[in-house]
């Protein structure tokens, strides 16, 4: 498929897109419990609310693993954080993505490394907390950081700082951006987990048999191939929030499913 056709498909109205179709390999991931992997939200609190309703009704036993980048770009980051904090209190796992990483850099150093957050969706998150306008100089950025920190609150800031970069169960590893295929999960550099690694998509298969679920890189449809499960379908722009259900105790036809949150 050409890049132009991919863009056309991604930005078609949701009603015009076909349902998710995925060819599953003979060997499937086998986590130690039922799992639901959720792709990048990027501030789409509306889609998250629909998803959580769906989950409560149809697959409440599956542990929810949110693959990072819950914030920025969409206009509902504050509400998304609130909803996810409540889910984590009930056993869900929210991973740190590069956008959460940039938010924390802004809190720590708004006039240094933290400035890049403002150019990559941070302004949308600030606006969701009631801060409008572009902080264009040092004093304005310091003031924006201080106001944002106050509105975020110490408990939510601590929750963001404690977000793990990796989750593992059985032969399934979940991260935001990817792994270095040459290293075991516990030996990965922190930046690799949230920003990715050049060899992750180069076809270099892992030799340990692990499956790696990730977001970060936009794909046309959620799918699995080459030991990877890709879940980022650009929900903030397309309205297509993808998730995968894995139940190791189910018979093979029902053991794994890719789906999209209905609008």
Would you kindly provide a written description of the structure presented here, covering whatever features stand out?
The chain is α/β, with parallel strands linked by helices and about 260 residues long. The chain folds into two domains: about 1-10 and about 25-95 and about 165-263, Metallo-dependent phosphatases (Purple Acid Phosphatase, chain A, domain 2, 4-Layer Sandwich), CATH 3.60.21; about 100-160, no CATH class. The protein contains ten helices and ten strands. The protein has helices at about 5-10, 45-60, 75-90, 100-110, 115-130, 140-150, 155-160, 190-195, 235-240, 250-255; strands at about 35-40, 65, 95, 165-170, 170-175, 210-215, 225, 230, 240-245, 255-260. The strands form two sheets. Strands 3-2-1-9-10 form a five-stranded mixed beta sheet. A five-stranded mixed beta sheet has the order 4-5-6-8-7, with no helix packed on it. α4 packs across α5 (about 115-130). The radius of gyration is 18 Å and the shape is globular.
């Amino acid at each position: 498929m050409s890049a132009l056709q991919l863009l056309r498909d991604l930005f078609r109205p949701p009603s015009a897109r076909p349902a998710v179709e995925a060819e599953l390999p003979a060997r499937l991931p086998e986590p130690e419990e039922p799992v639901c992997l959720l792709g990048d939200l990027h501030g789409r609190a509306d889609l998250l609310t629909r998803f959580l309703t769906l989950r409560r009704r149809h697959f409440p036993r599956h542990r929810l693993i949110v693959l990072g980048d819950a914030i920025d770009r969409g206009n509902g980051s504050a509400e998304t954080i609130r909803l996810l904090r409540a889910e984590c209190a009930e056993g869900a796992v929210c991973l740190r993505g590069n956008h959460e990483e940039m938010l924390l850099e802004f809190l720590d150093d708004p006039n240094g490394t933290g400035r890049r957050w403002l150019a990559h969706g941070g302004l949308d998150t600030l606006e969701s907390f009631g801060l409008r306008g572009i902080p264009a100089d040092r004093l304005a950025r310091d003031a924006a950081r201080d106001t944002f920190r106050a509105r975020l609150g110490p408990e939510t800031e601590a929750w963001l700082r404690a977000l793990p970069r990796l989750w593992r169960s059985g032969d399934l590893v979940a991260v935001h951006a990817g792994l270095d295929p040459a290293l075991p999960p516990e030996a990965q550099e922190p930046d690799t987990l949230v920003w990715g690694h050049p060899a992750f998509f180069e076809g270099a298969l892992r030799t340990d048999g692990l499956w790696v679920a990730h977001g970060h890189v936009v794909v046309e449809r959620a799918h699995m191939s080459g030991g990877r499960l890709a879940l980022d379908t650009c929900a903030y722009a397309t309205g297509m929030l993808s998730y995968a259900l894995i139940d190791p105790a189910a018979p093979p036809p029902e053991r794994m499913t890719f789906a999209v949150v209905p609008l």
